[in-house]
Amino acid sequence: MARIGLLGGSFNPAHGGHRRISLFAREALGLDEVWWLVSPGNPLKPRAGMAPLAKRMRSARREARRAPIRVTAIERELGTRFTVDTLRALARRFPRHEFVWLMGADNLAQFHHWRDWRGIARTMPIAVIARPGYDAAAIASPAMAWLRRYRLPPASFSQRGKWSAPALAILRFDPDSRSATALRRADPDWALRLPERPVRDPLTRSTVPSNEPGQS
Predict the structure, then answer these.
(1) Fewest beta carbons less than 10 Å away: which of 4, 18, 96, 141?
(2) SS (H, E, C) 33-65
(3) Which residues, including other chains, have CB under 8 Å from residue 183's CB and lie 6 or more apart?
(4) Residue 132 pLDDT more than 70?
(5) For the segment 152-175, what is each residue's pLDDT rounded down to a tens digit?
(6) Nearest to 159 by CA among 52, 29, 14, 22
(7) Residue 69 pLDDT > 50, yes or no?
(8) Looking at residue 20, what is its pLDDT?
(9) According to the model, what pLDDT value does residue 216 have?
(10) HEC string of the chain?
(11) How far apart are CA 107 and CA 189, in angstroms?
């Protein structure tokens, strides 16, 4: 069975920090690949300033090149809006894959606000990656209070047999402070320099039109 890490987000734009944490997680957890789930629309983020989906995919593909990272907008085809629905759909669609959900400590800090967050934890293991300025809030969060009992050392993921959930791994390494928000602030016209062409999704084989807007 292939072992896949799932990193979701707007990727508005993708940057080297996404690549770095993905490769680190792959090494630490013994993953075969990391899939970047480029969201058609994040319910927790405003639509203003959201680049078209094809542009965000193109940005992600540029950052992921020559790495064991697959960029996909499969949520668009699945018709899912919330993470819990996406992860359950992926588990059904790829029964011969084992998945682990990757997220930053900033997401763990507000994980208890996500739709059916306990359902996410029961669907697949979670690996949390340190992020500057958020560790204290993550450790003190209501979600961490519940997840703490399921914590495992990262090495156990690569050494054990079939994964089970709930399970939580905390990955600590030299943190990367880059963020898409800071990049947009420094370069608000980043998407205008990318080609106006449709993008082929390597996972679903479908085409994302160049004019399909980012949704909220």
Answers:
(1) 96
(2) EEEEEECCCCCCCCCCCCCCHHHHHHHHHHHHC
(3) 13, 15, 190
(4) no
(5) 998 887 777 778 899 999 998 766
(6) 29
(7) yes
(8) 92
(9) 39
(10) CEEEEEEEECCCCCCHHHHHHHHHHHHHHCCCEEEEEECCCCCCCCCCCCCCHHHHHHHHHHHHCCCCEEEECHHHHHCCCCHHHHHHHHHHHCCCEEEEEEEEHHHHHCHHHCCCHHHHHHHCCEEEECCCCCHHHHHCCHHHHHHHHHECCCHHHHHCCCCCCCCEEEECCCCCCCCHHHHHHHCCCHHHHCCCCCEECCCCCCEECCCCCCCC
(11) 26
**What confidence score (pLDDT) does residue 175 get?**
63
Q: What is the dihedral of CA 87, 92, 98, 101, to 10 degrees?
A: 0
Structure tokens, 186 = 């420094």
| Cα gap 17→30, rounded to integer Å | 20
- Specify the pTM: 0.89
Which residue reads 């899939």 in tokens?
A: 35
> Kind of pairing, strands 69-72 and 33-38?
parallel
The answer to whether 5 and 100 are in contact (CB under 8 A) is yes
- Only one residue has tokens 């690549």, namely 19
d(CA 25, CA 130) in angstroms, rounded, equals 11
